């Protein structure tokens, strides 16, 4: 039913690159092709190779380089009069904006990409942009709003036999079920995603699916050993392909598993590791979640109650500012977990920094 996974963001002279190509190789080859196209005045090819450069930078966590690259790709596409290339560049920019926590800008760029893809006849970029909008809504906590869009995209991907897009949609729907506490349904969807990704040789999608399975195995079954083993398998792929964001989320999930097992010192260390990785790539959501986990671990290890209250209060305000509503609810749950009252948070907020 499904063929081998392909990477449609590798275009022009780079179409032979595999979905599993090392990001370092993609960046080297893409940069060489981009320079050649710019030297020859080949705007369409510059746009296509520039897209691969932008995506390689983004996935490596090099956000400033990624920002320059997608904008240059868009300009080259516009110079060539290539609406499809422009749409792909907007998709890349919107995905980067989501990674950086600029959710309103992400929605704007992804919406433009979907519209331009539709008008230019590039159905695939239209679908990728809609999937990006669905993911943006999901991570903000708008689960019901985006569930139907995820399911629509899943049906379309299944009908066309697009393995990679099917895996993405399955994982998105699985995460919605997991966040609702529907562990069995989430597990089944992550399991299907892992099977399809493995058969289609989509190592990135497989690594994300294994992470989802590890989460369920830990939260539902309390099987710490199996969860850590699944994460170790995924980490091998992340390191081989230099998937910086996926690796940071893998480390954050490892910390979650250790926290649930009451191995708080180990969890603290892994949260610190993940936090540094997220901060290095400007990943706003990951940074917030790692901060939350670190705060909870330190509290379990005897951190002063007022310091815990202050940190959770500051984190709550940051999440409200950037619009991560689901993560904000997680902070409220942590405040309840440690019995922190609104009055304590208010005192902590007013206290001079040096007194905490």
Automatic annotation (TrEMBL):
Signal peptide (UniProt feature, chain positions): none
Domain of life: Bacteria
Pfam families referenced in this protein's UniProt entry, alphabetically: TPR_12
InterPro entries per record: TPR-like_helical_dom_sf (IPR011990)
Protein name listed in UniProt: Tetratricopeptide repeat protein
